[in-house]
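Hi, here's the filled form for the chain we discussed.

Project: internal
Contact: R.S.
Residues: 391
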Amino acid sequence: MRNRLRPGMITAAFVALALAAGGPVQAQHGEGGRDVGAGDREGQAVPASARWNEIARQVAAADQPHGGAGAVAMGGRTLALVSLAQLAAAEAVEAAEAPVAVATASATLLAELFPSSRSLIDEQVEVDRASAGGGGSLVNAEAAGREAAATVLRWSSTDGHDARWTGILQAGPDRWVSAAAVEPVGAHWGAVRPWLVESPEEFRPAAPPAPGSAEFAEALDEVRRATRGRSAEFTALAEKWMAPVDGYWNEVATDLITRAGMSEVESARVLTMVNAAVVDAVITCFDTKYHFQFPRPSHVDETISMAVPLPNHPSYVSGHACVSGAASAVLSDVFPAREAELTALADEIALSRLYAGVHYRFDNDAGLAVGRAIGKKAVEMNPTSAKLLAR
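And the returned structure, exactly as it came back:
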């Protein structure tokens, strides 16, 4: 049996990402993020789609905080809807009109989803209107943006994201157990309409190792060794990546997009691919979780200590791994010079969940594979807004 726990190996890869040519991909995780409407990256103009992606992250985080055991919003859905509205708006107008169309689409959609933040949203869209000047082109761009947002909102209203789960939690010593008097998190997400895949079963992984098997015993022992007298490095990684990471990968994406000087259509398409892949990775992940209802390590061995709160959903597969695999696969294809660093970053995020004591390695490995397969499908599809809205 080889020793898989190698402190410093993944961290070194992440440091390499931060020091690579072009500067750090992103250095704001866990630091509260940048102010709304942050300025240029090293002199590069920030596309409206990237700027409004940042605004969307802040608005959604304030209105739909992740964590806890309650009903949280499905990972990435809000950002995916914003990106799709941006892409539809940018595709509908001339290049010169695209920034205002994208800003209007973003603001219209966000104001509908988060009415309590309307004053902030209105303030930010005025920044875009002022920089664009006036005239007929502005009127046409705003109309295209409003229409794009309305179309996406109508389309999203029938995706099943707010349905109630009608499944049954399986009983038995080898099955996951929900926290007492708490509703399981994300149980219905597997029934949400996918954006890219035909169904969650398309990329549902094979069953995890059976409890009692030698493979399972080895995986459980690895969690024990990682968490028993947990090192400062392992604790730091577990805490660093404790929160859901869909917003973080959007930070990475917008930084890379801005540094590359992408047009509005290009930027919106990359963000749409990233977030559509993330949504489908989450759908597949939670379909898998409630299909197998596999116990967490601490359910099998109560002596396992956790560095983060225990998520109230089954163990197999890891959501952090699914999301990171999907986003890194898309971004690696778009920015191939950064593939090694992006892949290492996804691996670090996944492995942090083992260090935290909430996942086995096979949860992470299967989750990364699921996400990467869906990310590859997003790249191959290279979707237009019309193609996605026709689903």
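Let me know if anything looks off before we file it.
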